[in-house]
Amino acid sequence: MQTHQYDVVIVGAGGAGMRAALESSGRVRTAVISKLYPTRSHTGAAQGGMCAALANVEEDNWEWHTFDTVKGGDYLVDQDAAEIMAKEAIEAVLDLERMGLPFNRTPEGKIDQRRFGGHTRNHGEAAVRRSCYAADRTGHMILQTLYQQCVKQDVSFFNEFYVLDVLLSSDLSTGEVADGEPVAVSGVVAYELATGEIHLFRAKSVVFATGGAGKIYKTTSNAHTLTGDGMALALRRGIPLEDMEFFQFHPTGLAGLGILLSEAARGEGGILRNGDGERFMERYAPTIKDLAPRDIVARSMANEVREGRGAGPNKDYVLLDLTHLEPAHIDAKLPDITEFARTYLGIEPYTEPVPVYPTAHYAMGGIPTNINTEVLRNNTDVVQGLYAAGEVACVSVHGSNRLGTNSLLDINVFGKRAGIAAAAYAATVDWAELPEDPAAYVVGEIERMRDQPVGERVSDLRRELQESMDLNAQVFRTQESLTQALADIKHLKKRYGSVSVQDKGRRYNTDLLEALELGFLLELAEVVVVGALAREESRGGHFREDFPTRDDERFMMHTMAYQRPSSTAGETEIRLDHKPVIMTRYQPMERKY
Amino acid sequence: MTAVVDAPSGASPETAPEVGAVPTFDVTLRIRRYNPEVAGDEAYWEEFTVTAHGTDRVLDAMHKIKWELDGSLTFRRSCAHGICGSDAMRINGRNRLACKALLKDLNPDKPITIEPIKGLPVEKDLVVDMEPFFASYREIMPFLITSGNEPSKERLQSAEQRERYDDTTKCILCAACTSSCPVFWTDGQYFGPAAIVNAHRFIFDSRDEGGTQRLEILNDKEGVWRCRTTFNCTEACPRGIEVTKAIQEVKRAMITRAF
Amino acid sequence: MAQTVTPSALEAPRSPRSPRSRRSTRTNYELYGWVFMRASGALLLVLIFGHLFMNLWVGEGINAIDFAFVGGKWSSPLWQTWDLLMLWLAMIHGTNGVRTIINDYAERDATRIVLKSALYLAFVVTVVLGTLVIFTFDPCPPNAPAELLASFCTA
Amino acid sequence: MPDAPAGTLYRGREGMWSWVAHRVTGFLIFFFLLVHVADTSLVRVSPEAYNAVIGTYKNPIMGLGELGLVAAIVFHAFNGIRVMLVDFWSQGTRHHRLMLWIVMGLFVVTMAAFTPRHLMNVFGGH
Ligand SMILES: Cc1cc2nc3c(=O)[nH]c(=O)nc-3n(C[C@H](O)[C@H](O)[C@H](O)COP(=O)(O)OP(=O)(O)OC[C@H]3O[C@@H](n4cnc5c(N)ncnc54)[C@H](O)[C@@H]3O)c2cc1C
Ligand code: HEM
Ligand code: SF4
Ligand code: F3S
Ligand code: FES
To answer: Could you give the CA distance from residue B29 to residue A147 in angstroms, rounded to a whole number?
Structure first.
């Protein structure tokens, strides 16, 4: 085992992680640990844009942006956080431009902006052009630009190191640590892919920026590597997860594949049509039609298919029609996504509509944090020195449904805040005590997995999990379907105990890591389903057919899910608690578009 | 979409939206394997046959092998749709991204050969050491260099100025180009096309002031002058970047500067 | 503590950051070489095609080449300059080209040095020899049989 | 750890193969040039010596070799022009493939004109 010491350790080198690193590495000794080379992170897949009320092309202000965010999130948004995000958005975009990000430009040479779902002028009057973009590769440009700046600042990266444990000064997982008692982070344990070696990183501050968990579903826009590691590690160590039942299904994934076609396609004028060629969004959201927020569009699409108005031989998808747009316009604004359609479906978007269907896209929930990105271990206490930002975190700026372009914003605004806060904290404190034998847990897990001579195959379990989640916990949910999903997960968790890997080697043992990632997925899926079962209402990304309306009376609150030992020895269960929603300006209204 | 599965194993036809009726077919993959931990240290070929669907890519077939036949098969991958740059490999003799190469375009009658990209040390199976590649990238100062005070707003740039370097901003650092370059194969010292592409991205950015320094770095004896315009890089680039064109523009910029 | 021991055979194949290994050579030599290859190539095109045309095409082609033919050509300053220029340009162009090839394929420094020394030696010998021949050439050497010489020698 | 195993031949396209040919022809011409200067310098020794050596060029085998050499020079020269166009003409990289076919066309035409005449001289001669 090797030991390293850094003031700040950042886990994850996506947009949030690198944005934090840029702040932190200039102030204190910082290391960034990432299971992928930084430029392979999934931030690079983001297409459409990053919004900020720059008002470069039309009247706009951050207050409208805050409102849209709150309304888009179906009022489950913490409004103080949303306000911060909308305000700091402007500087966040300008920061990136000054770092060299090649935004598309207006005729005056300023950053160009375009429309995006749910972003409106003056509290819902009409769609507004708020999304700053670089063709349909905004995430790619952000990731590259941040990495470039990290190269400039000579940030220390540990690439292809998998963080598998976070070390805390007390064991929270039993639930026995009293509220108010101080708990601090002391480091992380990581596995080096190249050698199979275990590394202990001692740190004063740890920032989690490990991204999303889309792989709990089968059809997803997320990368194979988005297995929710950070969320699951926190959960195992007794930290709660907030609002995990809210998972966003993006309306326009390539049918059957899940590869994303950005909302920008509709922002630029694309239209959704059902099997009869009807522009069905006119029925569901008469004002902003195809640019309604994602939960509404995804549900409308699924409903069209369910009611037999789908397109294609099996009537199981709808069509995204770009054929009325000028090919030159498509090439200028949407080059990548039209190429996806060509490469993967053999469809020419100039002349043919593209088959699309909702795809699992974004985890609104995650590790709860306050607006300073400090991780909460209950409704009020923070874990000292532990921070989280990006998709892994839940500051709750997205509530129950994230607006398009708000995530690239989130990772920049809160990534920056996390970097500053983590460095500031590290500069003031001493090293926290390391637990005894800090790597024991990770070593044990790995050895158990490697030593199991024969057993269940990782891929079977993962496939069964993903299929059950797609079937039972997707756009439409019922008590019955969720109960089924929970039973499936419980069963799979049992079988996971006897999973074995074929590759017994040390070097580049990706087989072993897939097995560990499956463990994360199973635990997160359980949290999603348990939360969804308990939330007997429909709100944002969570739609219960047996409870089709929003119920502010009972459910205007965040879900806090804790993993605690269950009565059966050696097993755990999910216990739910609640946290109030922070409201400042906007009282809940019916959400109409 | 609300159906409840009886047995979780059930693949449900009505929830798997597939485009038209896709025929299945068998493909054989001939994969260059290398395990650093067994004695002998020799790379060898191994063949696997799997059943594939119409829209499957090479990556899907490789996953099938890894997940169902041989868990020790090792390769990098992440996004699975050609934007993260993890899975550049040599497929039927040419560099491509496994996640962008459709099996049906590859003549499934013959085995599809898959090898690691050339010119970088192989670590295991298809995984190569990317560090030399990134080292070259870091050397060309791949970041915006400006002088003077930071403006309070954005720096202005016209649409034409933005267009000037658009092509080279698309790079995902997959190394398909550099490892397809015959000059890079020889001794691995050449900066390689990817580093030049990324230098180009800044040299031709109207906001950047570090062009001269970058030109100087690439004027090195391992720099642009080693390029012999073989165009392998341009053919290999999964992002459709006109790599050779970018290299030539850099060369011309140096000539203009020198005379 | 469950210490995972890494066998020495499994040393980390790479460190988080590899040091810069390249020594930079910030001169314009490669640039000049590159430009020269092109400029000389363009000139050589004319020179060599002219040369080939005169020697292999006009008249009886290769069969006509003998001492008398050469003597005839080099008695004219035009052809003397022509061939001299061609010799020098082709030798520099070719030597620089072969140098590139050696740089590409000879990986070990020792091999490089040996091969390049041989190359430069060949260059010097050939250029000196060729130049001397062109300048010191006597089209009508005394004591040579007249039928081998150009017609003007006897005139 | 072996460094990069050779694996199969890289299946490059026109650009790569034209470069291989350019390199091979350049290399060949260089060695011919060394020999050629050496034999020509025999003119300094004596007319007899020169004519004796030049005489050996006139046998059919050397004649065919000569043909190969001319082919090499012609290809190298024309392709050299193509390389320069790729270097200096802003549209060169887009049309490099077309230009290679033009090079090949010119090559064929040139060789078609030269070959019969040369072979007639070599074989039909004295
Ligand atoms: C296809 C697609 C399109 C999108 N388009 C948009 C858009 O247009 N606008 C918008 O605002 N949002 C968009 N999003 C959402 C947004 O891109 C993501 O939510 C955001 O990029 C997440 O950034 P992140 O930094 O949190 O995580 P990521 O970029 O996913 O980075 C995660 C990092 O954590 C590392 N990591 C993970 N686990 C471990 C571990 N165990 N140990 C060490 N390191 C680990 C990974 O290596 C990686 O570096 C899109 C998302 C997708 C999938
Ligand atoms: C007939 C006119 C000629 C032209 C137009 C010409 C042109 C060129 C050009 C442009 C190059 C550079 C290629 C590159 O950088 O990729 C080159 C390379 C080269 N030339 Fe010539 N050349 C000619 C004659 C010759 C002759 C007579 C010789 C031999 C003495 C020669 C030997 C070489 C060699 C060895 C190379 C290096 C090849 C490489 O690096 O791949 N050339 N030539
Ligand atoms: S230029 Fe193209 S091939 Fe080369 S690294 Fe970038 S994306 Fe990959
Ligand atoms: S393959 Fe290599 S030789 Fe030049 S054109 Fe591309 S860098
Ligand atoms: S897996 Fe990301 S590019 Fe292929």
So the answer is: 35
Q: Which atom of ligand 3 is nearest to the CA of B176?
A: 3
Query: H or E segment at D40?
Result: helix D14-40
Domain-wise residue ranges, chain C: 29-148
* Other beta carbons less than 10 A from residue A457's beta carbon: 18
Q: What is the pLDDT of residue C1?
A: 37
Please report the pLDDT score of residue B15 as a whole number. Answer: 42
Q: Pairing mode, if any, of strands A50-51 and A161-168?
A: unpaired
Nearest to B255 by CA among B224, B213, B222, B209: B224
B257 burial (CB, 10 Å; 0-12 / 13-18 / 19+) is middle
Nearest protein CA to atom 5 of ligand 4, as residue: B229
Would you list the domain boundaries of chain D? 60-126
Model confidence over A442-462: pLDDT tens digits? 999 999 888 888 889 999 999
DSSP symbol at A206? E
A275-323 pLDDT per residue, tens? 999 999 999 999 888 988 888 999 999 999 999 999 988 899 999 999 9
The whole-angstrom separation of Cα A88 and Cα A86 is: 6
As a whole number of angstroms, the distance between CA A553 and CA A437 comes to 48
SS3 assignment, position B159: helix
The kind and range of the H/E element at A521 are helix A510-534
Say if residues B244 and B228 touch (Cβ distance below 8 Å): no
C-chain residue closest to B213, CA distance: C26
Q: Work out the minimum CA distance from A231 to partner chain B, whole angstroms.
A: 19
Closest residue to atom 22 of ligand 2, CA basis? C41
Share of chain B above pLDDT 90, in %: 76
What number of C-beta contacts closer than 8 Å exist between C and D?
Answer: 108
Q: Which residue of A has its CA nearest to B74?
A: A510
- Backbone angles phi and psi of A384, in degrees to 5: -65, 130
Q: What is the B83 CA–ligand 5 centroid distance (Å)?
A: 6
| H-only helix segments in A395-457 | 406-428, 440-451
pTM for this predicted structure? 0.93
Q: Which residues of A are catalytic?
A: 294
Is A touching D (3+ C-beta pairs, cut-off 8 A)? no
Does any ligand 5 atom lie closer than 6 A to the CB of residue B126? no
Confidence of residue D125 (pLDDT cuts 50, 70, 90): low
Tell me which CATH code domain C29-148 carries.
1.20.1300.10
Residue C128 and residue D38 in contact, taking contact as beta carbons nearer than 8 Å: no
